Structures are given as C-alpha cells and as structure tokens.
C-alpha cells in the first residue's frame, strides 16, 4: 500500500483537472501486444461498497496521465440490475474512500477539491457536495487521511497527522539560534519507518460531533502526547477502526509503544473508546485478567462489531514478533469479556471479516495460491459458548483460480473484487448459496479487446524433499510448442507473501510473457495459503529449502521441449531480491542474467540499517552478535555478500532512495561488488520512490530497463 505523505497544514490551491490518457493508440491496437505503456492506459478499480438495500455498488476508480505523471480518482456507481456504471465525480479532484449512510440516501467520501483532503458528502444520486471537515479556505487544517461516520450520523471519527509535543527531532527545534541547520537528533529507535524519518509526527484518531455545516472541535482519543500511531504504521489501514452499530463505541487498533520497545514488538491490541465517558478499554489485556497477556502478544487487528454490538470479531496472531503467523479469527464477548478462537481447525488466514446478521461471519482466506470467500455459521448455542474450544466448521464458499481481494455485502447480495494473473480487478456478484460468480463490470474491456494474453498453467512440482509445490507457468501469447522460448524464474518477496492467481501493476507476469518469455512463478516454502507449517519453514532458514524449491521449479520447466535452458533469467524483489543475490552465487550456470529489486545483500548491515527489528529477529533468528544463537549464526553465515566470489553473471539492480525497510545501501553494496569483480552490472536508483515503484513515468523507466536487460543477456544469449 502506498503511504500518504506526512505533514500538517492545508493547501489552499485546488487540484488541477487531469486530462486522462487511457485510449489505446492505433499502433497499440494494431500490434495487439501487452506493453508497459498499454498497462498504464488501464483504469484501476478501487474501494467498493454496496448500498444498504443492495441495489447499487459505489466504488472508486483511478485513471492516469503519463504526460502529467499522476492519476486522478473518481467515484462511480454500478446499478446491480442493469450493470450500468455512472460517474458521480469528475477529474477535477481526487475523490476516494466512498461510504453510504445507514439508509442509503447519502454518500460520504474524501476529496481534495478544496485544496486539502477532507470529508465531504452528497446525495446518493450525485450532484453538489458539502464539505464536512476542515475550513473553507483550507488554511491551517491537517489533511484527513481516513474517516468513519457512525450509523446514526451523530458522530464521526477521522485520522489526521499531529505533531507530538516533546518529540521534536529537528535540530532547529532544539537550537532556535540555528534555524538553517538540517540535522535530526535521536536518542532511541526508530529513527525512520518504511519511507519517512520520525520527526515527531504521528497519525491519531479524532472523534467529533456531526451536524449541520463543518465539524468543529474534535477529541484526539489517542492523546496529544502519544508518540505512536493509530491506525498502525506504516500502512495506516483505516479498516483497523470501526463504530459499533449504535454509534456509541469506537473500536480501533493500536500499539502504544515507543523507542526500541516499538521496534522489536508486534504487540498491537484492540481498544474500545466510549465518547460519552471518554474511557478506553484494551480488550486484549483487560484489568483483572492478567493471564490473557500471554494469549495476545502478537498482532491483533481489524475489529468488526456484531449487529447487536455484543461481540467484536477480530484477527489475531498468536506469536510475538512474527508478522506472518496465522491470522486467527477471534470473537470477543463484550458482556463477559470471554474470547474464542473460531478457526482452530482452519489452517489458513482469515481476512476481510464481515458479519452477516447475528449468526454468520464471512471472510476471505488465501487457499492454495488463490483467495476465496469463506463463512462460519454460528447458531445461538455456539454464540453463547464464547470460551468453548469445540471446533467450528469453516465453509469455503467460492472456488476457482482467482483472487477475491475484497468483498462487500447487503444481506445475501455479495459483490467481490476479483482479479487473476490475466485480468485486473473487476466486480463480480457472488451467489450466497453456491458461491458461483457473475461478472458485473467491464472497466478495462477497451484494453482487453485489443491485446492478447498468454495461457496460464497450474503445475504441481515435486520438491527436493518430496513435497508438491504449486507453480504458475505463464506462456507467451500465440504460444507454439514447436518453438524454443527464453524462461524467467520469478522469486517472490515478502518473504511470506503468496504468489497467487492475481494481478499486479508492478511485477506483471502477463507483461513478461507478452515480451516473449515463459514465466515460472513457484509458491516456494515460506509462502502462505498452504498451511502454517509450509509458511513457517523459511523463518531462520532463508538459504535452505525454499532456495531448493526455486531450483526444483525452474529445472522442472527447463525439461520441457519448448523451454530453452540456455536462455534463462532470474528476477525478484525484496526477499526475492535476496533470492537473486543468493542464487547468483550458487546457480551453477543455470541463468544468463539476474535482476534484483531492493534485495537484501548483506545481513550484518541489514540488521543495523532496517527499522522494524522484530522482522529480522524473527526471520534471521536474532542479531549477528549473538554467537550462542545457532539459527542466527546460520543466517548470517549464508548472507549473499559472502558468496560474491562465485558471481559470474550480468546483474541489474533497482532500488529506491526512500526505501528504509531494505535501504538502498544494500543495492549499492551489491552493485559495487559486481563491478569491482568485472561483472556486467547496472544500477537504477529512483530518488523519489521507496520499496516499490508507483509513479507512472518511473514505472515506464523501470519496465524499459527491465526488459532491455533481459533482451540483451537472456533473449539474445548464444
């Protein structure tokens, strides 16, 4: 998720209208090939929500102008009966985060039309909009980054950035006589996070009264002196905050820690705030139930109230310091303070949890490299037995090779956001009885109608330890089995991030296939959707079985008569970039070229350069100086930089200057090592990107350099 920029203060200049450039040229239509330029002509479906009566889907859509190097987001409705889409807002402003009021008569949304992102509302049919937060001229008001309207429309919460008193980091704040100094000063961790330096600014939740005109006042419920964020950094997901149905209580996620304690911990909890009394309760560590402190030491997020407000469903990770533990679905009883794990016998994560009445919970789960809609039925007796350990049956409602990335529902009318390797997100109706899907939208048919996609094959590869590994193989358009094709091994990042049958605008498999490559994308050890044991294997063993899984996948495909084993490349980002660096020292001449994006190169340096230390503590096993820790010492002994003497293959390296998770210095080290050893290498450094590349023109540069390197050293290899 791309992070919004930190900073307080409104901008009085309204956004410039954007001339959207999404029509294919005559040459692009005649060629019929999927290219990076064509990909940036596509519209991107965003957040969607069904009206309370289920008749209308409200959603956001983003379109781009490559010439202006930016996009604009507008609001649309889709009539569920006619499937006709209607645009509610134009390209003169960015309008996002759409939400219905309780009876479906009004729409609330965020807009920067006044010069600063604030909350606005309009009638459900569109028309003139009314500003709800901020000031009329935008002066001196912090931008709103997310909001929620209580069901009774009496209150709203919103998130904005505040500067915490006493948390000043700028030297000019401490040395008033030296205003031109540009130093930052720290006495503890974390000095920086993801893509920004800690300068004392944090996202806080505010609650205010909603009435006629602008919201006035508002209370910072996190606390003016709280030097932490809610929702959690670095993604600031507004789904971590929820009103109850009566509009009297607000549940939210927070990790109230600072300094080194924050950097080494994943211990977030669910808090419930009462606007009437001002009291806040931590339901994961309540007073008087000390034993529960041992039960919830990891991530606890995403509270969702039952329709009668008796229960809060939320997602919980059992193990401290592990961001990739199983996301269990828990139920908290607000009357008894008892807890129940509903997914003890379900070996997959529970995502996007929603209630359907009092007796059903729906959620999305990653299952065998797809994402499916699931449900749990709770009869009255099961609801009352909150602390009972009896298993609850999870029904997988949908099936198929696709990703259902989100869903919205009004009773039994369900709409899911669906994508595949070959198609970007579109909206599909889900039959609540049998899980069948019906396509509702056709946002990008104007593109698909003029390009050819490659066939996607689902292959089960036998690993070196006798397991079965799902591997996607994407063939070039117009594939001819009588020909020989160059082959790319794709190494996934995360490291615990599934290679699903889904769409990406950054690492797009169909884009690679369209340039004439066979793409091999294995779900190696350490990836979710194949059970927790498969996922856990990678922690403390980066250089072990998962690396052998990569080689098993590429060797399996290389045996095909249409695969040219003399023209193979290896590419990947983040942990995938680490994989590229490590394989460069042990690939035994399999590959003609490597491409690493923001990869980990030097484990010792990485420990001191990254920010969330719980990540390296869990995945490496601990710090490099702990000589008594066998797991950690094995990790550091297998750092890629220790095998550079074996490098013999051209390598292209991408990095972003604002990447503080895997700092660009890791890429500089790798580039230096390659060049000093006389290996052909290229460094592409983006001064205004972080761990991923988001800006349109940067993306085109990335893709052109990517395919130029592969064409030169793989496709044209002798």
Oligomer: single chain
Indicate the low-confidence ranges by residue numbers: 1-12
- Beta strand %: 25-35%
Cα-to-Cα separation, first versus last residue: 41 Å
What is the overall number of helices? 15
Count of extended strands: 38
Describe this structure in words.
With 718 residues, the protein is α+β, with helices and mostly antiparallel strands. It is built from 15 helices and 38 strands. Strand 6 (106-111) and strand 7 (118-123) form a beta hairpin. The longest helix has 20 residues, at 696-715. It is globular, with a radius of gyration of 26 Å. The two termini are 41 Å apart. 47% of the residues are buried.
Annotation keywords:
single chain, globular, 718 residues, eight-stranded mixed beta sheet, disordered N terminus, 31% strand, four-stranded antiparallel beta sheet, alpha+beta
Write the layout of secondary structure elements.
Blueprint: H1 26-31, H2 36-39, E1 44-50, E2 56-65, E3 70-79, E4 85-87, E5 95-100, E6 106-111, E7 118-123, E8 129-131, E9 144-149, E10 155-163, H3 171-174, E11 192-193, E12 196-197, E13 201-209, E14 219-220, E15 241-243, E16 250-254, H4 259-263, E17 269-273, E18 280-282, E19 300-305, E20 311-316, E21 328-333, E22 339-341, E23 351-355, E24 360-367, E25 370-377, H5 380-384, E26 395-396, E27 403-410, E28 413-420, E29 423-431, E30 437-439, H6 445-448, E31 456-462, E32 468-474, E33 485-491, H7 509-514, E34 518-522, H8 532-536, H9 545-558, E35 563-573, H10 575-584, E36 593-597, H11 603-609, H12 613-620, H13 630-637, E37 651-656, H14 664-676, E38 681-686, H15 696-715
Parallel strand pairs: 33-34, 33-35, 35-36, 36-37, 37-38
Antiparallel strand pairs: 1-2, 2-3, 3-4, 5-6, 6-7, 7-8, 9-10, 10-13, 11-12, 13-14, 15-16, 16-17, 17-18, 19-20, 20-21, 21-22, 23-24, 24-25, 25-26, 27-28, 28-29, 29-30, 31-32, 32-34
């Amino acid at each position: 998720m791309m992070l919004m920029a930190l900073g307080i203060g409104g901008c009085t200049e309204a956004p410039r209208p954007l001339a959207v450039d999404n029509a294919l040229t005559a040459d692009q239509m005649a060629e019929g090939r999927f290219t990076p330029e064509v990909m940036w002509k596509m519209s991107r479906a965003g957040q969607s929500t069904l009206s309370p009566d289920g008749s209308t889907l409200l959603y956001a859509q983003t379109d781009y102008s490559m010439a202006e190097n930016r996009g604009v987001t507008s609001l649309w409705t889709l009539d569920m009966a006619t499937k006709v889409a209607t645009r509610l807002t134009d390209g003169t402003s960015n309008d996002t985060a759409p939400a219905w009021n309780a009876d479906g008569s009004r729409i609330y949304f965020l807009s920067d039309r006044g010069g600063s992102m604030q909350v606005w509302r309009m009638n459900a049919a569109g028309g003139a909009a009314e500003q709800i937060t901020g000031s009329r001229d935008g002066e001196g008001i912090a931008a709103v980054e997310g909001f929620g309207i209580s069901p009774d429309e009496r209150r709203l919460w919103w998130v904005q950035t505040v500067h915490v008193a006493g948390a000043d980091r700028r030297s000019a704040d401490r040395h008033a006589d030296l205003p031109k100094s540009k130093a930052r000063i720290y006495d503890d961790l974390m000095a920086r996070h993801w893509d920004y330096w800690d300068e004392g600014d944090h996202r806080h939740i505010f609650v205010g009264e909603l009435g006629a005109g602008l919201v006035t006042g508002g209370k910072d419920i996190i606390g003016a002196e709280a030097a932490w964020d809610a929702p959690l950094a670095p993604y600031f997901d507004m789904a971590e905050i929820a009103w109850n149905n009566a509009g009297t209580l607000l549940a939210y996620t927070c990790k109230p820690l600072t300094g080194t304690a924050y950097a080494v911990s994943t211990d977030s909890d669910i808090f419930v705030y009462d606007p009437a009394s001002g009291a806040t309760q931590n339901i994961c560590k309540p007073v008087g139930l000390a034993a529960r402190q041992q039960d919830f030491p990891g991530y606890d997020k995403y509270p969702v109230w039952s329709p009668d407000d008796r229960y809060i469903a939320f997602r919980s990770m059992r193990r401290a310091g592990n961001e990739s533990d199983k996301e269990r679905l828990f139920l908290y009883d607000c009357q008894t303070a008892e807890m129940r794990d509903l997914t003890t016998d379900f070996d997959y994560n529970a995502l996007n949890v929603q209630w359907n009445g009092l007796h059903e919970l729906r959620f999305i789960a990653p299952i065998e490299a797809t994402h499916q809609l699931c449900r749990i039925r709770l009869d009255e007796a099961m609801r009352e037995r909150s602390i009972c350990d009896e298993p609850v049956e999870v029904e997988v409602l949908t099936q198929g090779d696709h990703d259902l990335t989100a869903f919205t529902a009004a009773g039994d009318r369900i709409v899911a956001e669906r994508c595949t390797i070959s198609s970007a997100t579109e909206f599909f109706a889900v039959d609540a009885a049998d899980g069948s899907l019906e396509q509702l939208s056709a946002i990008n048919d104007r593109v698909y109608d003029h390009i050819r996609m490659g066939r996607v094959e689902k292959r089960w590869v036998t690993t070196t330890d006798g397991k079965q590994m799902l591997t996607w193989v994407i063939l070039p358009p117009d594939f001819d089995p009588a020909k020989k094709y160059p082959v790319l091994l794709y190494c996934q990042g995360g490291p615990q991030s599934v290679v699903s049958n889904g769409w990406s605008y950054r690492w797009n498999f169909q884009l690679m296939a369209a340039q004439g490559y066979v793409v091999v994308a294995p779900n190696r050890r350490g990836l979710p959707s194949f059970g927790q044991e498969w996922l856990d294997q990678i922690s403390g063993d980066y250089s072990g079985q998962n690396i052998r899984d990569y080689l098993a996948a590429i060797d399996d495909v290389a045996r095909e008569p249409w695969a040219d084993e003399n023209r193979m490349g290896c590419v990947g980002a983040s942990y995938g970039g680490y994989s590229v660096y490590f394989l460069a020292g042990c690939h035994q001449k399999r590959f003609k070229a490597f491409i690493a994006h923001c990869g980990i190169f030097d484990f010792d340096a990485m420990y001191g350069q990254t920010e969330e230390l719980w990540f390296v503590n869990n995945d490496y096993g601990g710090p490099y100086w702990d000589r008594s820790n066998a797991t950690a010492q094995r990790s550091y002994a297998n750092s890629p930089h220790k095998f550079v003497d074996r490098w013999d293959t051209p390598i292209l390296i991408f990095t972003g200057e604002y990447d503080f998770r895997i700092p660009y210095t890791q890429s500089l080290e790798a580039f230096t090592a390659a060049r000093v050893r006389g290996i052909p290498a290229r460094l592409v450094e983006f001064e205004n990107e972080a761990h991923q590349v988001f800006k349109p023109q940067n993306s085109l540069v990335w893709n052109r350099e990517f395919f130029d390197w592969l064409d030169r050293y793989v496709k044209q290899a002798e």
